[in-house]
Amino acid sequence: MERFYGAVVARKKLVLALFILAALMGLALRGMVGVNYDINDYLPAGTASTVSLEVMGEEFPGGIPNARVMVPDVTVPQALAYKEALAAVPGVEDVSWLDDSADLAQPLDALDPDLLKNYYQNGAALYSVTVSEEDYVAAVDGMRAVIGPDGAMTGQAVSQASSATATMGEVRLIGVFGVAFALVVLALTTSSWLDPLLVLAGLGVAVFINGGSNLIFGEISFVTNAAGSILQMAVSLDYSVFLLHRFEECRAEGLDNDAAMVRALCRSTSSILSSGLTTVIGFFALALMRFRLGPDMGLALAKGVAISLVTALVCLPCLVLVTCRWSDKLRHRRLLPGFDGFGRFVRRVAMPLALVFVLAIVPAYLASNANDFYYGSGKMFGPDSQYGRDTAAIEDAFGVSDTYVLLVPGRDTAVQAELSRDLQALDHVTGVISYVDAAGAAVPFSYLDEDTLSQLMSEGYSRMVLTVDVPYEGADTFVLVEAVRAAAERYYPGAYYLAGQGVNTYDLMDTVTSDLVKVNLMAIGAVFLVLLAAMRSLWLPVLLVLSIETAIWLNLSVPYFMGTPIFYITYLIISSIQLGATVDYAILMTDRYRENRAALGRKDALVRTVSGTAVSILTSGSVLTVVGLLMGYISSNLLLSQLGFLLGRGALFSLGIVLLVLPGLLCATDKLVMGRRPKAEDRMKEENQ
């Protein structure tokens, strides 16, 4: 180890140049990484709705309607003109309106009222639009230009386009504020005005390299794109700070800069790697999810933290040594007061808080598992957003609506007629369009023109389009999906295909809920084994993991007590992120306690441990907290916003437990922590306290 670091330090300018080159390459490649805004694309490949979409794409032209567009205050001729204008927008594959289901040569009063209310009410026209997945943003912008500010749009295509448009600017804003706060915190906790810039420069190199290396995935999810870089910075910050503190200690021993850096690296590598490994494992556990958003985010973040570790141990030392002369000239006095008083305060309250902690474990666990959830993308935008206002306007005028498409094999119109009757009898099914409904079971196929027939029949399948009055997700939606599948199963067992936004959400719910236990057990088990190997104690891994898991349960119990539903995806992801990102604080606290306990009594060791680790823990924890809260307040996408709030609040809970509760738990279980009975001199110190 010493030989390796010696070689790095001896070639510091070359090493630094190589890292800068890699960062520039990463920055250039980063723009080539695609971003996917459709969470349904991350369903497992064999999921029923995913397979259904693939078969439909092979058998029929066009896709499932994915947008509802409303234009108010128009006559029928004007509505038809708007339909043509919408159809002419690049990226729009199909536009359906009243004229596709009724003869508009008749007076409106002569039309079926149930049909009319789905398309034209009180002078407002509602269109069902199919937008190409490759052109969501451009097509939605084009449709917005056609309908003007008084029109409204909703649906999957509009939601994804809104996410893409808003997220890019919001990510940059979060990054700017996050970096600014990190600079302030680092200025307070380091000894030179240049140190914060060096730390952030090293982190920037790691972020750029990781961003460019995401090209190996082809594309990443919008969640990873929005949260990945800022999370990488927040959770990796303490590696650099810890190394800088060690370097200053070694310089104080009288060594020259190069020798001091080599010694600092040798002394800190073990603790930095063990902390980094627990974080990598926490993120890597997400790769076990069947829902592929987990692997997407987990692998990108695990790779990012690994790159940050290498950068902190190889690039940053070279950067510090090259700039030592300027750093020394910019030294400043200590800006933060000592934490001895805080350490004494913790000694007084540690035991009562430890008791409260023990009493809170079970209620926190139960509450965290009793939340109400959103599973899909239907609730990603709040009522104050453009999307939320448009959705409310359309639903106020025309009600809630979704479209399911059912494929059944063959052309047996008699069986299809029976199935259509069963489907129309289901609650919340407001209409069925199929060959047997358009022409009748006894009418020859030649009755319909070729264009219409091709929309309803292929060589191998017949298509039935269901209009339903349920939202994209919810109890009624899930019951309806099960009922439609049950009806199709009676007539075509194992041979039908059903797709639609509500169907996707049902399968998403089924997939992500099955991932929870597996991911959590993997993360907890792997972190436990790392701690077991590093600390050579059975009790300490139990204590540390229980401390952070309780912080996670407290964090996730807040939405339950507030009566706020949360996105199940964030519920699943935050457990691994909070465990991996904040267990480092508990490791540092425990290591320092054991080190101090070898020379001091329990209570004195507690005070010195808390006062000695508070700055390091608060540096990393405060940045993680603020970054999370910034994401929560700035993101208009509620999934990202909720992830941010959970991350920020979770960091606060972890900080509180590590700084205020864990010291008391270490004292209370001192014999198990130390793995031996206190020496005679230790007992005397205890008696004199």
Q: Care to describe what's here?
A:
The structure is a single chain. By secondary structure, the protein is an alpha+beta fold. Among the domains are: 1-32 and 190-335, Multidrug efflux transporter AcrB transmembrane domain (Multidrug efflux transporter AcrB transmembrane fold); 66-160, Alpha-Beta Plaits (2-Layer Sandwich); 386-506, Alpha-Beta Plaits. 67% of the residues lie in helices and 8% in strands. The chain is built from 25 helices and 13 strands. Strands 2, 3, 4, 5 and 6 form a five-stranded antiparallel β-sheet that branches. The chain has a four-stranded antiparallel β-sheet with strand order 10-11-9-12. Helix 2 runs antiparallel to helix 11 (293-322), helix 8 packs antiparallel against helix 9 and helix 21 (568-597) runs parallel beside helix 23. The protein is elongated and about 95 Å long.
